[in-house]
Design a protein that fits this description.
This protein is mainly beta. 14% of the residues lie in helices and 46% in strands. Strands 3, 4, 5, 7, 8, 12, 13, 15 and 16 form a nine-stranded antiparallel beta sheet that branches. Strands 1, 2, 6, 9, 10, 11 and 14 form a seven-stranded antiparallel beta sheet that branches. It is globular, with a radius of gyration of 24 Å.
């Protein structure tokens, strides 16, 4: 798997503290539950795991949706802290499509130390979406500052987003960082897609970020992972198109009758 630079940076930051590879492996492994989940920050470094309809879910009456607001303080360095909020939703059309979305997201570095952390969100286990299917990873939002005083600039803000179908990485969306830039700085990189050859039963999103004190990231729209199967009509058109290509490559052109003999019509 291609491990992006922000996730590597966050893991390095994590292992400066007394947290081992076993803890990280348990956190990265799929949960055994069947509902949408959110992990805000690294476990062992102040992170919080929120389940659908659990105590920290601010939308407990809505199945398939988690709304959260958390302050994460690193117990190894209390100068490293951030406040974050957002809404995670899953929309499943059994056997046809699945969409996992993080929206209304905001994260602010509120301490005096650099924040290098991650938000992980995942669907519950759903009925298999059979191949062929297509996975898509999407991200758009803004780098900002949240300081009350005016005239401030973004110091050094960076974000990247990974999408997974089961354990298969669909792709990475990695917009350029904002360094010493006037606020806000928008980003909307091109979506990443991948053809999937195996049944899909779960989606995961990993949003890694790095912020200097006073910097912030907002996703007023979304970070999204989606898998969809083509409509039957699309498959039929694809089959017809492939058949035409094969006929043309074979040179099997229609014949016309000219002067009592058969001749090729491709003169």
């Amino acid at each position: 798997m291609n491990v992006p630079h922000l996730l590597r940076s966050a893991v390095r930051s994590l292992f400066r503290r007394p947290v081992g590879f076993i803890v990280l492996a348990l956190w990265l492994a799929p949960a055994s539950g069947h509902a949408v989940l959110v992990q805000v920050g690294f476990p062992g470094a102040g992170g919080v795991r929120i389940a659908d309809n659990a105590a920290d879910d601010l939308a407990p009456a809505t199945a398939g949706t988690i709304r959260f607001e958390q302050e994460i303080i690193d117990p190894g360095d209390r100068n490293v802290r951030f406040i974050t909020s957002g809404t995670v939703t899953e929309n499943i059309d059994p056997g046809k499509s699945a969409v996992l979305t993080l929206t209304e997201f905001d994260v602010r570095a509120t301490g005096t130390g650099r924040v290098s952390d991650i938000i992980v969100f995942e669907t519950g286990i759903f009925a298999p979406i059979p191949p062929p299917s297509t996975g898509t990873v999407h991200l758009d939002g803004q780098y900002r500052v949240f300081r009350a005083e005016g005239g401030q600039r973004i110091l050094n803000a960076d974000v990247e987003f990974l999408g997974f179908a089961n354990a298969v990485q669909i792709g990475i969306v990695d917009p350029p960082p904002a360094r010493n830039a006037a606020s806000p700085v928008g980003f909307a990189p091109a979506d990443v897609t991948r053809a999937l050859a195996n049944p899909v039963t779960r989606l995961f999103g990993h949003l890694a970020f790095r912020l200097e004190p006073g910097d912030a990231i907002r996703l007023p729209t979304s970070a999204r992972v989606a898998v969809v199967t083509p409509e039957p009509g699309s498959l039929l058109l694809l089959a017809v198109g492939l058949a035409v290509v094969m006929i043309l490559r074979a040179g099997c052109y229609p014949k016309t009758v000219t002067g009592g003999s058969l001749e090729s019509s491709d003169r």
